[in-house]
Amino acid sequence: MKNELIKFDITDLAISEMKNKTADLKVTDNKERADVTVHLLQVKKIRVAVEAKRVELKADAIAFGRNVDKEAGRIKELLLEVENPLKEMRTKYDDKKEAEKAEKERIEAERVAAVQKKMDDMRGFPECAVSETACGVKSAIQRLTDIEITQEEYNEFFMDAKHIKKTVLAKLEDIYTSAVAREAEDERLEKERKDLEEKRIKMDKLEAARKKKAAAEQKVKDDAEAKRQAAAKKERDAMQAERDAMQAERDAMADEKRVLEEERIAFNKSKKPVAPTPIPSPEAHAVKVSELAKDPVPVVEPEKPSKYFTVLYKFKDQDELDAWFEKDVAKNIIPRGGNVAAWSAEDLFAENSRLEDELEAK
After folding, report:
1. Structure pTM?
2. Which of 154, 231, 295, 301 suits a disulfide with 161, CB 3.0-4.6 Å?
């Protein structure tokens, strides 16, 4: 390399000297600028000469390199004609082996996945059986029992599969026992519910019958009470009517008493005999009593001179009137002459007062 650099007519030492000479240069005026320009042109001239020499020296090398590349390409093409078929044969074989390997891996993955799925299915038996009836759980136990665990099928998972089957069967047996107990309890509760429902229906019927009977009895009582109240009201109305009639009678007797008193006073003042009020004869009285016995309803009475005769019309039957006649008329009036018309005003007044007191006492 150094021998070839000598051909450039410049050395590293010369370059170093130029560098030292130009290191302290500066441009502050035209003279200094001109001095810098001289050194610049000298350096540039040497650089251009070096570049020209480089091109000259490299021309043969570039031509040689091109020839080398061309020959190498020709030889490479010839070699590739041999290499490429070999490479294709090898690649084809490698691809086949890779495909076979991938297929084996796929088949193995599918086998493992299938085995895993079978084991997962066995693990899932209890979860599915929890909501089943005892019969359904028993069927699940039988299905799991029928599953055959073989070395050929499960291969490296053979022991795991056997353990899973054994564990799951134990769980299913527990679930079956619980299901049987639960169904027995459900059956007992259902029977109790039905019994209670039947009893409730019977009680409802009895209650309905009781209410119906009570309603009927109450209706009878209500009807009887209504009739009783109606009868009581009718009786009260009749008693009120009778009391009103008696009060009216008392008022009339009071008025008559007042008139008799006035007559008595007037009689005493005048000292003259007062003509007595005509009194019916015993025969007319007997006819009246007979009529009253036939019709006890009070009739409109004719105008009477005293309350004595008003009392006669208040008797309800013949027996009561006869008893009164026997007691008062036969013992008092007839023994005194039987002629009431001959009585004095004082006698009539006294007799009327006595009869009024007896009436009020009754």
Report:
1. 0.36
2. 154
